[in-house]
Known about the structure:
Layout: E1 6-10, H1 12-20, H2 27-36, E2 40-44, H3 46-56, H4 65-78, E3 80-81, H5 98-106, E4 113-115
Parallel strand pairs: 1-2, 1-4, 2-3
Helix pairs in contact: 1-2, 3-4
Amino acid sequence: MKQGKIYAIIDTNVFVSAFITRNKESPVVKILNLIRAQKIIPIVSKEIVEEYKQVLSRPKFKIEPNHFEDFIEYILSISVSSSDLIPLTEILPDPKDIVFYAVTISSQDKKSILITGNTKHFPVKTLF
């Protein structure tokens, strides 16, 4: 793989898994480390950030508020914001996933990728 920055839309489930796993070598923890090293640059929208906040604050995940709040603040400091989304005609199994897909499609000028643990929720497309 080319040594450069990867622009990625990161599904919330990746962050939840990274925060709750005890396996420091798991793929989701490696993704978090690549974000911290700024090798992966998140692309976010206002709706995606709101979902991160809502989901990561759920008591069932037992994530310390300061931990995920600091993380979201960091994500916002290094991320690229996407607001001009291309209208989509696809219907996804989980309507909450549409924003992640829309940002991915709308960010193809950066050759962005979608990182998710729920690949069955998204259409398979090669866009570049």
